[in-house]
Automatic annotation (TrEMBL):
Similarity annotation: Belongs to the peptidase M20 family.
Protein name: Zn-dependent hydrolase
Alphabetized UniProt keyword annotations: Hydrolase, Metal-binding, Zinc
Cofactors required: Zn(2+)
Residues holding Zn(2+) 2: D95, E130, H380
A Gene Ontology molecular function term of the record: hydrolase activity, acting on carbon-nitrogen (but not peptide) bonds, in linear amidines
Originating organism: Paenibacillus apii
Nucleotidyltransferase in keyword set: no
Length: 411
């Protein structure tokens, strides 16, 4: 079947984005839709109804993940498109949900054109990707991929003391473990970039080849408290001054490693945190992200080479956590790249600095991601925005990729 020049309905896509945003929309035009909240349950119901209108079969697994499947001619592993419907508090209208809407619009377009896919096409909604109500983030995809223990996750509590297991049972979206996705021809995840690169470079599509590796250390500097007014400067063991010297050293050394390395000292605790008392302890974190494991190893080496004493204070280092770079499937990435080129959209290969369900899914299914630009790089806030034109182009890329993976066949 000839499937060239098939495009999604841009007006319908815009309406759909706004319709989903109505579930938890904030006065400032953002969205608060925490996992398994009333708003999340309502948007799940809406997503289910949209899919069933298309003749799709909707099932749910034991972690509450939703699978809406358009039957294929052949009973083979499906092409899966997915992301998540939950948001952070006062988040945006695009993060996560755009990936689900993309899948929905691709299926709508197939149905519009009377294309019955050669193999099934599934649209997924992963439960609790954000971790904003129940920690950790990417909970369900972590369980499905064997990264997290399900029983531990079920006991995770929200600030009101409700466990994830209790909320899941009450939601009506607790399904069966046998419904979990176990195999797929490909898993495709559309996402806003959540960064400024594509917009700054005037590009439309990001071809995501990996989710970068990262490492996080905690540095503890211990000095001696004393009176801030009576202790001469030369007789102090000021933990804060020592810590700032270490921060400056880290910035100098890490800044010279690689232009793509990003690093953050995002948490600092000063004790006793009283303006009349010389600080006796400072604890701060150093987090670094890069796709090359050798660069991450250099970061670790620099952190471990920090002196054991600084300005009369003792210094200790401890690793909090880390992850390896997750590389996406070359075949699936190639299909996306071919689709972008056939559509003539500007693009670049890039890494994702943020975590996504796809990074866990990639451990057992052939996976890849597509980025569309974020205006001013903003995300996880009410100002989050991607133009409807860029959204439409992104979904066109997904549609073309699905058609490519289907082999452009139908009946």
């Amino acid at each position: 079947m000839q499937t060239q020049n098939i495009f999604v309905n841009g007006a319908r896509l815009k309406d759909t984005i706004e319709a989903f945003a109505d579930f938890g929309r904030t006065p400032a035009n953002g969205v608060t839709r925490l996992s398994l909240s009333e708003e999340d349950i309502k948007v799940r119901d809406y997503f289910r109804s949209c899919c069933e209108e298309l003749g799709m079969t909707v099932t749910v697994d034991d972690m509450g993940c939703m699978y809406a499947t358009l039957e294929g001619i052949e009973d083979k592993p499906p092409i899966v498109m997915g992301s998540h419907l939950d948001t952070v508090v006062k988040g945006g209208r695009f993060d996560g949900v755009f990936g689900v809407i993309t899948g929905l619009e691709v299926v709508r377009t197939l149905v519009d054109h009377g294309i019955k896919p050669r193999i099934p096409v599934t649209v997924m909604n992963f439960t609790n990707e954000e971790g904003a109500r129940f920690e950790p983030s990417m909970m369900a995809s972590g369980v499905l991929s064997g990264k997290f223990d399900k029983e531990v996750m079920l006991k995770s509590k929200d600030p009101e003391g409700v466990t994830f297991g209790e909320a899941l049972k009450a939601s009506g979206y607790e399904g069966a473990a046998e419904n979990r996705i176990k195999e797929a021809t490909a898993y495709l995840e559309m996402h806003i970039e959540q960064g400024p690169v594509l917009e700054k470079e005037g590009l439309t599509i990001g071809l995501v080849d990996c989710v970068v590796g990262m490492v996080c250390y905690e540095i503890e500097v211990t000095g001696e408290s004393n009176h801030a007014g009576t202790t001469p400067m030369g007789m102090r063991n000021d933990a804060f001054f020592a810590a700032t010297d270490l921060v400056a050293e880290l910035r100098s050394k890490l800044g010279g490693l690689d232009s793509e390395l990003v690093y953050t000292m995002g948490r600092v605790n000063v004790y006793p945190n009283i303006h009349t008392v010389i600080p006796n302890k400072v604890i701060f974190t150093v987090e670094a992200r890069h796709k090359n494991e050798e660069v991450i190893a250099e970061v670790v080496s620099i952190i471990n080479s920090l002196p054991e004493t600084q300005s009369g204070c003792s210094v200790s280092k401890s690793k909090l956590w880390g992850r390896d770079t997750v590389w996406f499937d070359e075949r699936v990435c190639g299909a996306i790249e071919s689709s972008v080129k056939s559509l003539g959209y500007s693009h670049k290969k890039m890494a994702s600095g943020a975590g996504h369900d796809a990074q866990f899914v990639a451990s057992y299914l052939p996976s890849a991601m597509i980025f569309v630009p974020s205006v001013k790089g903003k995300s996880h806030c009410e100002e989050e925005l991607t133009s409807y034109e860029d959204c439409e182009k992104g979904v066109n890329v997904m549609l073309e990729t699905v058609l490519t993976l289907l082999g452009d066949s139908g009946e």
